[in-house]
Every structure is written in C-alpha cells, then in structure tokens.
Amino acid sequence: QVQLVESGGGLVQPGGSLRLSCAAAGSGVARIRTWCYYRRAPGKGREFVAGINRGGATDYGDSMKDRVTISRDNANNMVYLQNDALKPDEPADYFCNGREALREYWGRGTQVAVSS
Description:
mainly beta, four-stranded antiparallel β-sheet
C-alpha cells in the first residue's frame, strides 16, 4: 500500500507562486514508477498538470507547462510541484498520483486559491 499526502496549498495573489509537496509512505513506495500531479478546477474535470518518472524524465500538460516544474526527492519520498505565475481563473484542488505497474494511488488533494 501507498499513502500520499499533499500540502502547500493556500491563497496566493495573481501572478504569485506556490510550491506543492506530496509525501509518500508505505511498503509500496519503491514500486512507484511515475509520479504525477493533477488538478480539478471548480465545475471541471480532472486535468493532468505534470509527471515525472523513475528516471527523472518529465512531462507537462499543455495548459500550465510554461509555469510549473515537477521534481522529486527520492531519498525522502517527496514530490514537488512549483507553480508560478498563477492566474485569477486558476483556483483548483491539486492531487498527487503515484503509479506502479498494476495500481495507482491518489492523495486527498490540496486547495489552491488565487485572489487579490
């Protein structure tokens, strides 16, 4: 099993930045091949934001690819999403996702609000 806990959300002004963290724990962490962040804006579906695989290769969704950076700390089982230049129309819940060969795991999410 794997438990994922997101943190770092909060209120940020338009144009501001946040660094989201995902802490992974459990006996299955070593089997995780790919870590991803998704977001879900109010009234919308879940959207892929960024992913990073075991080799360190990254992938980004189109809507935020110029403003987000995903990284990880393997030694501490942490995954980070640096989120810059947030826009007023981008409040959302952000979710951490971990995938192994046959299963995937989700955190409960952390909320990001953008307002002046």
